[in-house]
Amino acid sequence: MVYRVGLGRSRHPSPLTSPAWSLLPSSPVQWRRAGAAALPEGSAVWQGALVLPHASLATAGTYSCHGEDGGLLHAVSLQLGYLPGVPFVSCRASDYENFSCSWTSSVETFLPTRYITTYRKKSLTGEEKRRNKNGHMGPCLQDPSRPGTCTVHGSEFWSSYRLNITEVNPLGSSFRLLDITMQAIIKPDPPEGLVVEPIPLAPRRLHVSWKYPSSWPKEPHFQLRFRLQYRPVIHRSWSVVETVNLSEVITDAFAGLEHVVQVSAKDFLDAGNWSEWSAEARATPVRDPATVASEETTTDTSLESLAEEPSQAPNPEPINHSDPLEKTAVLVSLGIFAFFVLAAVLVITILIWLRVRKHGKDKTKPHNFLVAATHLKALPKAQIL
Is-above-0.70 flag for pTM? Predict the structure, then answer.
């Protein structure tokens, strides 16, 4: 026989009773614990019953009742524990067709515990209400290989659900109701197949590609977007880029330095949360040929200097991380700028010349006017004569 007693629920001790006294009322009995005569401190035998006034977890064990001759009359196994507490529950959907929930007990009961897991769809269509007046209910299926988890299959992305997780032990039960929506708990698995490769003749570039997580169904109306984080292994801060593509070119990598790259995913319409970061992938951009030649020259010069006079000073020559494409872009920009400057100077020169010319014409106009006026004034006199 097994007795399970709750701790901290009653101020009065409950005795462990045995049929030995009722069967043999005239015979004294003896209680033993685990076969030994020593009993927990404060225990007493009253009318054949063993009383444990200060029961605790240490009091648990197997107790046996023996007759006057030492023969076994009865045995009982005592287990002590607590009522279940309200469990902690969280849910997550790795795709838009299923969701899983996990839970942990809020109280260590020290007793055998089981869980009853069910769900109910909150928003029902007219057809669903006609089919099932009690609403769409079903079990959240538990997987024995993953204790503390259950899964609801065939869920709908735009629907709401109420989950019931009930914790049960021999002393009683306690439950948690959790309302969830698929849009809020969607969290894809990390992208897979991350590959990082250097690009030939591009010292500051790395090509990164990846695949959708295998758990995410490939449907045109449920897409994912991605974010990429990368850094040189010798640095701590990350650079982050977002994209909707399955590949990206890093354009500001450090030539000759190994880089670490990770990628994560999220629903395209920004529902739910970002996935965890994928496993790391690493690659090193190719080195700039000009930089390699410069370093070789610097190394030769340093070796010659060391042969003449040893020195512990580091080489101050900076590593050139410039990109040939960037140099070409700079030269083109400078050429365009010079063209506009020359055009502006030419326009200003033409304007100044036109203004000077106009000013010269204005100076000659008063003289011609006076000559014409004198001629007109003298003309009438000549006619009178």
Answer: no
